[in-house]
Fold each of these.
Amino acid sequence: MRQSAGPTLERTDEADTYYLNMGPQHPSMHGVLRLLLKLRGEEIVTCEPVIGYAHRAHEKMAENRNYIMFIPNTSRVDYLSGMIYNIAFCQAIEKLCSIEVPERAEVIRIIACELNRIQSHLLWFGTFLLDLGGITPFLYCFDDREEILDILDRVTGSRLTYAYGRFGGVTMDVDQDFLVRTLAFVKRIRSRFPMYEKLVGENVIFRERCEGVGVITPEVARQYGVSGPTLRASGIGYDVRRAEPYGGYDRFDFEIPTRTAGDCMARFEVRMAEMEQSCRIIEQAVAAMPEGPIGPKKLVQRLKPPEGMFYFAVESARGHFGQYILSDGSNTPLKLKMRTPSFSNLSAMETVLEGTMVADTIAIVGSIDIVMPEIDR
Amino acid sequence: MSPASATPVSLDGLLLESADADFAVTGFHRVHSASVERIGDVARAYDEGAYLLEMITCEDRREDLKAMRLVYTFNRFAGDLDRHVVTVDLSGEIPGAEAPSINGVYPAANWFEREIYDMYGVTFSGHPNLKRILLPDDADFHALLRDFGRMEDAES
């Protein structure tokens, strides 16, 4: 696929500025993102993110498949919070078609999604530190993360691209071993948080590179529709799980961690605090795990959605993931629009990066936790 | 959840139609439609009410409505949730369908409008950088138009 070559390292029309391409093959750049930077010395004059390298036309595919055929696509949109996307699509269709979900299936989904959220934050944590030059934390958190992948792999059969949800439930029931291992993991990760805090959070080099860097003000966040931990680090406690509860989240007791600084450090702290909240949700869910079926009483033979416009949002690991569905009453959507959080978060970078230094670019872009396949869809 | 009547946005005279929606069923609190000339004013009204632009998308409705339809959703992340959807019908001519850009009101619209241009061929007047965003720059088609037909066996 050809993208415009564009200027690489060229002089601009102004004598003292030049263009620099960062990505799509830059070793520190996340996935296939290209930042076209106009620089004066080391200062960024303008920044234009260039995206589309991982476009796979999921929305076009959705129009050519019936709803159930689209399930495997969902987790591939954002491979790091694949479980959340997969379950979110099922929940959207359940709401659209008024399909009831048994309580046990809801609780299993919540455990799976929260494990997925921790996994995604751990990966972000590791790669963010890697971007900043700290290799050791990466090894520790991948060790932790592997345990989650094993737990989910045992139940779902996949490590990343899950297709665990079905309309009205999940494919496989969980056993005692799953619950025991999940609780053991929660205990393990809790014992690691103080170490991470000591190793990273109190590390003077890390703090110097993060504090006051890449500040996103609440007003910029609103103008660009920034959501997720990036928004909560700017002082706005918006979380879809709390603002419009779905899938039984209203039954659980958890906090929405927020910070007011809006810089890279605040985003780091919010994500670390969120992992603890996910642990709390998992503990409550395991304790409250009811017996019963994991799928609908009567197999759904043919979906009969009502006609019209429909919107369903969930909180992915990166923020507000919305699905806009236009239905004509058939079992194939006329239109499925996926409003992905990183798309909006990244679009704010043109403003946030202006006037910062090239060396901070990696820290800032890394700190908003972007996943390119989710942006390009 | 705030009742829709408590909305602080003053949209008087800006809309063609306006109705309450059942949030529990559709996910929207209010459903509006506006004329293409007024969408800039509508966006400004939401901006003054401290709403954010959640998304813009487009629908190829040339078959049933003889139109391309833009879909804007506005919401609040700070304060009570209040999701409004505004639809705007454009001419069904591609190329030719055009709407004013609201990038000047909401910078978030920049990429959403580029994506709609990329995928549907709808142009936005006053957009500072209207070029393809996801497809290759030299693509000669707009991928989400219904020109390509629908897979026959999708209806199983």
Amino acid sequence: MSLLRPKSTEEALNGAFETVKSRSLTRLAFERFARNKVAVVSSFILVILVLMAIFAPVAEMLTGYAMEFQDRNFYSAKPPNWEARHFFGTDQNGRDILVRVIFGLRISMLVALVAATVALIVGVLYGAISGLVGGWVDVLMMRFLDLLISYPLTLIAVIALAYFGRNIYIVFAIIGLVEWQIMARVVRGQVLSLRNSDFIEAARATGAPTGAIVRRHIIPNVIGIAVVYLTLTIPEVILVESFLGFLGLGVQEPNTSLGVLISEGATRVEHKPWLVFAPGAFLIILLMALNFIGDGLRDAFDPKDR
Amino acid sequence: MAYVLRRFGQMLILVVIALAAVFSTQRLAPGGPFDGEKPPPPDILINLEAYYDMDLGMPAQFMGYLFGMAARDVGANGRPGRVHWVSIPKAAEVSITGSLDGEDLGETLVVRKWCPWGEWLRRFVDKPVDARPLRKCGIVRGDFGLSMTKRNIYVNDYVRDGLPGTLKYAIPSLLFALFLGVPMGFVAAYFQNTRLDFSMVSVGMIGTIIPNLVMGPLLIYLLANQLDGFFHWIFVDQLEWVELSRRQRTLNLIPSGKSGGPIHYLLPTLVLGTALLGRIVRLSRAGALEALRSNYVRTARSKGLPNWLILFRHVLKPGILPVVTYLGPVSAVILTGSLVIEFTFSLPGLGSQFISAATDRDYTLLMGTTVILLLFVIVLNFIVDLLYTWLDPRIRTGGSPT
Amino acid sequence: MKKLLVSIAALAALGLSSVASAEMVLNRGGGDNPGSLDPHQISGTWESDIARDQFMGLYTEAADGSIIPGAALSHTVSDDGLTYTFKLREHNWSDGTPVTAGDFEFAFKRILDPATAADYAYLMHIIAGGADFNGGEGSVDAVGVKAIDDMTLEVKLASPAPYFIAQTTHNTAYPVPKHVVEKFGGDWARPENIVVNGAFKVDDWVIGEKLTVKKNPMFYDAGNVALDAVNYFPIKEETAELNLYREGGLDVTYNMPADIIDEIKAEFGDEVMITPYGGTYYYTFNATSEPFNNVDIRRALSMTIDRDFITTVVNTSGIVPAYSFVPTSLPGYQAQNPSWASKSYDERVAMAKDLLAGAGYGADNPLKIQLRYNTNEGHKNIALAVSDMWAKLGVEVELFNTDARTHYDDLQKQDFQVGRAGWIWDYPDAENLLALMASGKSYNYGQYSNAEFDALLEASYTQSGQERIETMQKAEAIAMEEAALAPIYYYNSKHLVASYVNGYVANGDDRHPSRWISISE
């Protein structure tokens, strides 16, 4: 049965001495990823979304409405109107929802990119150090994490925004700096469990240097779970951004983000559902694509399936 | 036991550090608790600051916050003056509203009955502890202080009323996610790469890919509006089986918001539950897969043990291991979720209090909710650590030398 | 089958906290959590609603908001208009102790005591010696309030104030039970300790969920109070309140969402109650620095705001376009519009372009400004619409929103260019609004300053009657012509009132004591 594929210590031992491993690992992963249809389709969707975000002004040309243009005939959130080329309707100030959603997508993707990168780097490093060094350093680092998790995020955001001005990149960095904690925790758990695993012990017994063990075994094993959590972090990041927007700490008008659009429409869902449906649909598609890609990557990189 | 004690010690230090951090940084944020559409004139602002001891230095304020204070003299201009930390000297007048029934404060021991733990502390301190008409006991005696924007509400009152509000939907949603998610994950793992696996993961993912922010309005729209409207149309308008009371305008089978009976918590529970579900399905599936692939399961199989026994004995425990790890971070998910959910459904709870504390610069309320949330996270992580050690013997060495 | 379904409906109704019973219970939208039950420690209108049910001042409100005797039976005023002598009504606190003039003296001195630190104490600065005592300079003995005997109260004012009787209906002038306050200190107003002299008394309070007041049997007019209990639901979000109203959980709402008023009117018809309310929504210009220290630029921007568009398209909740700061709903006062207010919008835009060009701004040198507002959907919609109007002049507007605390902190520090603000009068008198444009006042966010205006306002304090009103009108005309600030609309109050609720009468002060309300079967 496929679920009983053996993973012997010999294999791991061989791996420790193989020298051309890294290139073949990537290629193997790529081949495995390419075989995963859902993941490939999701990648295409993601590429399309990214292109839409990059070429957002095209939407303005398509509908004929600029992102901040207020159509006086369509004030107070009017439903979709194809003749007037308001394909997704308008918002309270008569601005075209479709155009705003695509510009919102752009901001949300920027948030996700910057913040998730920060989260990935800080989280993996922190978790790995904590797990590898162990002892009181580990205890200290984990307690610091507890502290951060409970520290009010809004407070950090308010203070930072007050001192650095309303700079959107600082908002992103703050979000990233807040969202790496779960990543760090998970990575540490993985490292701890790896550190005591038999194939690492075996590699250590054969006298492999620590650096090599980290490079050959810890990192490939950790990267899978880190990527999975990255795909979980991105929705979180987008949500935090929209939450800050809800508090008036996010992007300023007339700029917008998917989260801000949704939280604006959320209270009106009963009477004006189109306000939340379009940005909601885009967010869902984005998150779905990210999730499937994350799954695909995880499966592809999983060393145990090699 | 030593381990538990050590963790407890760490926890205490952590709480104090967190308090100091929040205490000092919150005042850096622009605006104060007394700013607003009609901010008080300068003279009155000085009165207010003295009332909340904000005229003292920061270390003194923090000390007062931690340990409380006995009284303040009547200072210049009738405002609160010098601070007496532990006992009230005979000469001091207690300044805040009113007198104290003419009690001789120098000799009488007055411990206000609503100073939590005050009586308990009296056994150890042979001095008057607190004699103010206004409660300022310090958090060592379980008093989180007086809210700064809501003048007569103690933070303790807030927590008393807010925590149950949050738990009312947080616990059911966690149970919902666990009791649905773990079996789903196991089924998916057992039938890996089949259609069943795919559908389980997909169902679980619904909550993950539709964030709370969208799920809330979506459920309100679908269930509370459309479905309710549909039922209304059938039962009230067409069949005329139900006659609505004068106050009711809708059938209201699935109400969309604001607390009331248990039925009002259905949608919030669903939203938070589905948000947790996806992760739990994924993690339990991953855990079960790993266990199924492991050497001991292989050995068990080769010994010819029945499938269910293998699953129960060898897969269940390691399989839920990742889920257990996740219960630590789950506290954070519930916390951030509560912020959104309490906004979307307009529910009372710690999440909404936390937001209003931060945006209103209600320093004491923010400190109080932070401590509560911190304890919540720490206690959950502590339980997770213990569970983890019990479930995974490999971790037992973690930290200490083997 | 029918029975089964009815019971399902009943089950659903159980979900609401209001279960039909023999008791007459009113479920009111409470707006927000009250911060205190102590009438001296509150500042929000939602808090005064509850205080109004629990306490009764010297004078009080009838159902239509008119002033009627409350704890006082009558009063006399001295010829100089400075000394008021009140004859009290014989009535009791809810614990049976008689309400005396001593309680009033104690209450007035307590709210002025710096140690009480009451936000709204400044309303009592009208009492002789009050401002000094409250500011930490005078002494309590110099405060001009004295109990002549148990039933007679004498109040000396610092200056004549025709609105003083109206002010005794405000929560700052409510009595507090001296014996209870002295016993419990700062905690006297907690639900377990509180003693009241009003028609209702708090029974149960779950913060964030519900506050219940029950009929006070010791109230002097208890026989005419129809309701047995009132539940206040502290719901900030207007949509949630609307949903609860629709579900039958509320009989009266505190507010309603302004942007879907048309839908609400279609659904609820007569139950929508919209009334002008004493306040103005405005934009303030920072007159302390470039470019708004230039009168022409202020005028140009103010006249380019298309108020009609805002009140008919952006916000259709029946608000009235404002060109003057003092609301037109103030009785006996002629609101002073600037000279351009009667011109058509296109004329105004042309005029504004000339003004801007005269100040040196044009296509090649556009005026760049920042417009600040506190985070709120309604404020955002108006800010966007206004920035679109200003764009017609070639002005580049940057929008900037922050939470309310930061916003008002910045306004007070003059750290802004154009900022949103609003003011609701504390008592119906033009002075209460005009003082916001006097030099150096803390609420004068833009620090507008005009010597002539100051002199006129100063003169009005020593005048009375029609003369005083005319002086104030002259002052306002000056400030409006100089665009000290840009009024946008006059507030209104919006409630949904169920058809079976009687005695909830529309009035300009938006005061609706539960005492007069009943529910018809």
